[in-house]
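Duplicate of #3305? Posting structure anyway:
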């Protein structure tokens, strides 16, 4: 997950996939908490956008399922072949929808992990303020 740039006067930096804090006073800790909360809100917004994207993908598939006709009935051995082809087609469509959802779900998992990391940093800074304030 890439974070947008922190402010130039920030006590927070993002290097090598890690968030680094340089806090030496209670005032700096409070500033850091505010910035981390803003980053958390950014991630939350991104996660909501991804959820909307998932909803659109699922909705499109649902509309296609509703629009298709029923499977063929009867027809002896010829009907069996036709039904097998219909089943293959339907399974393929279902699998393609599931495969298109995987990267979105993975990104949501990464965002959740990053949000938990931000929450942990906010708690640590809160403890720092409590001890030193």
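Output from current build:
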């Amino acid at each position: 997950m890439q974070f947008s740039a922190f402010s130039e006067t920030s006590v927070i930096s993002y290097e090598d996939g890690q968030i680094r804090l340089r806090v030496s006073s209670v005032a700096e800790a409070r500033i850091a908490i505010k910035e981390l909360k803003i980053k958390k809100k950014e991630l939350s917004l991104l996660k909501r956008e991804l959820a909307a994207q998932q909803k659109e993908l699922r909705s499109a598939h649902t509309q296609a399922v509703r629009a298709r006709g029923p499977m063929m009935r009867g027809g002896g051995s010829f009907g069996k072949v036709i039904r097998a082809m219909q089943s293959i087609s339907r399974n393929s469509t279902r699998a393609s929808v599931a495969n298109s959802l995987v990267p979105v779900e993975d990104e949501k998992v990464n965002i959740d992990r990053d949000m938990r990391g931000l929450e942990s940093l906010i708690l640590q800074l809160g403890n720092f303020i409590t001890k030193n304030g």
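Confirmed duplicate; merging threads. The chain has a mean pLDDT of 83. The helical segments are 26-67, 76-132.
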